[in-house]
Design goal:
The protein has about 260 residues and is an alpha+beta fold. It is built from 14 helices and seven strands. A hairpin with a 2-residue loop joins strand 6 and strand 7. The longest helix has 15 residues. The protein starts with a strand and ends with a helix. It binds a DNA duplex (13 and 12 nucleotides) through helix 6, helix 12 and helix 13.
DNA sequence: ACCCAGGGTAACT
DNA sequence: AGTTACCATGGG
């Protein structure tokens, strides 16, 4: 079936390729890709997105994925008390997606000291190798499946030193030592500390999981680009208008810094 | 050959 | 508590 999602500030190219998710491809308004165990083809429209041939019961999933219920007009208005944000956001349409926690965790473990092109490749090989076959391709692997693997079996991914981090994360999730559903309900600070019990998860990766996988919109992952932005423009810290939606602001600032080479 | 990439760990002061 | 070398791999 097809399904239309109406949402403002939703530029698919910017939203899908800004480094928050790694399983989509396409150009010129036509895209396709995966979220969790679901596949979709997406067409950019003026005030939203047209989903093509999705599962009969998957419309609510994709509505949630693009966080269609959140009015970005209000979000952008609140953040626009800051003039640097206004400059970074004008003419752009990035929405912070509601991704699955485990997929987000593994994806951002892979992201460390890595570039987006290679991250995409490693995740693609991970899904092709160990994800369940679904219409359109392969689902993201389950924790159960990954937890049973050895480092040698992950070698084809060419993930380097991150292979053992992937296994540690999958095993702690599978054993219940890390309960992502529970962590999602905690205040961000407590959730961050729990996530850091996983080898290979520090402040930045934990914040990415909290923001992109648990929708903690106040979390601001401090990657090299955001650190440069803060050093250059916010030496005294981020402004108060970013306390609620700092994570969304961060995504615009990250994109701005990256494109302008700050 | 050298440097960097949406960092983290371990081993130092 | 705050630095620093090192970690695999691939592209510039």
């Amino acid at each position: 079936m097809d399904h239309y999602i109406k949402a403002d500030r939703l530029d698919l190219s910017e939203t899908l390729f800004c480094g928050q998710c790694f399983r989509f491809s396409g150009e010129n308004g036509v895209y396709s890709g995966f979220a969790g165990d679901k596949f979709a083809r997406l067409i950019q429209k003026e005030d939203g997105v047209l989903l093509k041939d999705i599962g009969d019961n998957d419309a609510p999933f994709w509505e949630s994925y693009f966080d269609a219920g959140l009015d970005y007009g209000e979000v952008i208005a609140e953040l626009s008390a800051d003039k640097i944000f206004v400059k970074a956001a004008e003419g752009h349409g990035i929405r912070v997606l509601r991704q699955e926690p485990f997929e987000t965790l593994i994806s951002f473990i892979i992201s460390q000291n890595n570039n987006i092109k290679r991250i995409t490749g490693i995740i693609s090989r991970l899904c092709e190798g160990f994800g369940e076959k679904i219409p359109g391709g392969c689902a993201f692997p389950t924790a159960k499946r990954l937890a049973a693997l050895s480092e040698e079996e992950l070698a084809p991914l060419r993930a380097g030193f991150r292979a053992r981090y992937i296994l540690d994360a999958a095993r702690k999730v599978e054993s219940g030592e890390i309960n992502l559903g529970e962590i999602a309900l905690l205040p961000a600070g407590e959730g961050r500390e729990r996530l850091k019990a996983i080898t290979g998860v520090g402040d930045k990766v934990a914040d990415c999981v909290l923001l992109f996988g648990m929708h903690k919109l106040e979390c601001v992952p401090k990657d090299v680009w955001v650190k440069r932005i803060i050093a250059a423009y916010y030496p005294d810290g981020l402004p108060a208008c970013m306390s609620r939606y700092g994570g969304i602001a961060q995504q615009y600032l990250f994109d701005y810094a990256r494109k302008n080479g700050i």
